[in-house]
């Protein structure tokens, strides 16, 4: 591969083009340059950033990324989030203003300033970031962690207005190299490299509907940011906000930590916590989140704006329940899926 530090990408046989710095992906470079290249997860899982390589050579950063089928690969398609150019390129890709970054992603290092355990396997990590590191409520950042293959995406839980820090609620995975590093090895004062913000499932304050947030596991993080912004948005001051949060056991619930920090959440938001496993100590709602949603929100479900983040089983079930069974328009459901 050539050692050039800058390559040019030509898009869709048009005059549209952009440069990619050494070490950057095609997707990130496009967004940094003000081009709305289609994407969703930026982690190789969704396939929305796939493109056709017309000319040139690319370096595959994750050749087995699940977002692209073998058939698509045989047809010369690649994932923009998992490719770096090894030469100047000509590509065909989906481009739309919908994907333009209001805050173009930037790369920077930031020190950990606080680590707070919330449950036995969930913690809040807070980093001091550079001035101007703005994001929209519900967006995520890419973590570049030492000793891990590839990158990891985690969503911010705070608001830009809170100050020069980014806070993340992260769930530890038993065999997860990244989360094991964060929970066991990352000490206060140590720096890690970030790239962000990214993400399309952010709060839409101009949409005049009541809001329902639905989350599970570390899906709590972006929904906290969205909820915190919604209760402070002048456009939404007369709107109702509901927050459904599911966990397996009562011990897995940690919303109380954030209610103590921000009493306005308890004042403005109706919170419905759900437990799915048998738990004799639990006195609240039991079952799966979409089942509880059905019981609690009887009526016209298409009059709400939905923000959903959580495990695939949960988001898939909610998509069927909302879109198929209750005909909620797709544009009213904002999914932040785990891939």
UniProtKB/TrEMBL annotation:
Gene3D superfamilies reported in the protein's UniProt record: 3.10.20.30, Nucleotide-binding domain of ferredoxin-NADP reductase (FNR) module, Translation factors
Cofactor: [2Fe-2S] cluster; FAD
Occurrences of domain FAD-binding FR-type (ranges): 105-204
InterPro entries linked: 2Fe-2S_ferredoxin-like_sf, 2Fe-2S_ferredoxin-type, 2Fe2S_fd_BS, Beta-grasp_dom_sf, Cbr1-like_FAD-bd_dom, FAD-bd_FR_type, Flavoprot_Pyr_Nucl_cyt_Rdtase, FNR_nucleotide-bd
CDD domains with a match to the protein in the record: fer2, T4MO_e_transfer_like
Keyword Membrane: no
Superkingdom classification of source: Bacteria
Record-annotated 2Fe-2S ferredoxin-type domain positions: 5-97
GO molecular function per UniProt: 2 iron, 2 sulfur cluster binding; oxidoreductase activity
Residue intervals passing through the bilayer: none
UniProt keywords, alphabetically: 2Fe-2S, Iron, Iron-sulfur, Metal-binding
Protein name (database record): Ferredoxin reductase DbtAa
Organism in which the protein naturally occurs: Paraburkholderia fungorum
